[in-house]
Specification:
With 329 residues, this protein is an alpha/beta fold. It is 37% helix and 15% strand. This is Alpha/beta hydrolase.
Length: 329
Amino acid sequence: MIGVGIPFCAKADEPQYGAELEGFTYPYPVKYYAFSSQRQSLHMAYMDVPPRSPNGRTAVLLHGKNFCAATWQQTIQELAAAGFRVVAPDQIGFCKSSKPAAYQFSFQQLARNTHDLLTNLGIKDPVLIGHSTGGMLAVRYALMYPAQTAQLVLVDPIGLEDWKAKGVPPLSVDQWYDRERATTADSIRAYEKQTYYAGDWRPDYEKWVQMLAGLYRGPGKLAVAWNSALLYDMIYTQPVYYELGNITVPTTLIIGDKDNTAIGKASAPPDVQKQLGHYPELGRAAAKTIPNAKLIEFADLGHSPQIQDPVGFHKVLLQVLSEKQGQKR
């Protein structure tokens, strides 16, 4: 999210959460994977939900930039009911996981952290379902660990274009930090309404607005803003776009055609903004580039089809997973 104006002060009736989202309850028990990375001790929060009737498969859900593992709530429920063990981590820098003051964020590092977590849990061949920035991470994971990735499902992934090459001006980490410190519930809501939900708004979306806004209101808000700035810089400077053709894992793209997400778009000149975030075209081009990829489009949905139309999305998702079951790469 990008807010404007002076730093926000919470009203008495608005939630405030700790830097690791203390005070916000996840839909399933949260566990922590402790490990050492870049000369510091960190911990990665995750939910590990058992299947109702096991089918022997594990689905790993990778959240987006302005999301948390908790926002996969309905997807976890549907997958567990269909027989999947479901693991939904919060990446380092996000939500209930560590917020290091100094960390070299990279998709390679986050993929390694996730792989180490899964190895620790005894998971060897998961289905990766990545949404938004989680889609970029899922691509990187599949490129690094192709023999240990059963299937890739990319839900409105960002990174299907190179924003820098298209003319989005670079922002320094300090500039991102200044913008993130000004984030408010109103700025989050306005951005999500336009981008995530295609101009639509329902009361059930507000829970996720307040989840994020509570982080920016709480006592750890500066650590949250700083990590967010570092993560935005990572997303902007580390494109996976040029490596889509190297993916060897069975891949499905699920795209909401009214999505128009593009990192740094608001900072770009008007003529550049018009060229960014055209998801119907981006999705179709990516499906042609990724070997044997399948594309599924939702004509009336935005960036978050799993939240905006959970019934339609999960019907499609379960069909995709059923089609790939038992197939060899």
